[in-house]
């Protein structure tokens, strides 16, 4: 997986702005950087399953869109007006990520679709390309695992201290 992610997204992975997402937390203790790479890997696994069924997927765009889907470049947990931002982050960050990614990279229409629609159904309009559906599903799956790990960790601490 790592070689495939690097083959299509190496320029993204090595860019200073993308590397700066290591300091921004996504879920629990998982950084946006780690989350984005996990979503790219999970998306490739889904793609491999679909390919075995004869369903064509644009691998390069899948990987690049997955890496950039949360390219909003701030820590939404600590930003000023955090309460208001937390309430709106799920709705607003896809457009912020798309604006940042469009500034820093040449995006295809498919990559734009992935970034813009990955929060469906919060984005209201569903994804229109297969790759965006894959990243949307992979993002939900990875987010769930990261969130459950967070809760499991909190539960253990509470139970240990009882």
Automatic annotation (TrEMBL):
Domain of life: Bacteria
InterPro entries in the record: HD/PDEase_dom, HD_domain
Leader sequence segment: none
HD/PDEase domain mapped to chain residues: 28-153
Pfam family for this entry, one: HD
Protein name, per record: HD domain-containing protein
Natural source organism: Candidatus Eisenbergiella intestinigallinarum
């Amino acid at each position: 997986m790592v070689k495939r992610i690097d083959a299509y997204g190496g320029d993204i992975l090595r860019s200073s702005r993308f590397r700066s997402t290591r300091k921004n937390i996504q879920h629990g203790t998982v950084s946006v950087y780690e989350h984005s790479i996990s979503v790219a890997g999970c998306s490739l696994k889904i793609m491999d399953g679909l390919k075995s069924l004869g369903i064509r997927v644009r691998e390069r765009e899948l990987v690049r869109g997955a890496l950039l889907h949360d390219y909003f470049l701030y820590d939404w947990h600590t930003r000023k007006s955090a309460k208001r931002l937390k309430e709106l982050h799920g709705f607003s960050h896809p457009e912020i990520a798309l604006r940042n990614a469009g500034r820093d990279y040449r995006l295809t229409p498919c990559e734009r679709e992935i970034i813009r629609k990955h929060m469906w159904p919060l984005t209201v309009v569903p994804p229109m390309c297969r790759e965006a559906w894959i990243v949307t599903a992979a993002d939900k799956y990875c987010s769930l695992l990261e969130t459950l790990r967070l809760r499991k960790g909190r539960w253990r601490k509470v139970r240990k201290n009882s």
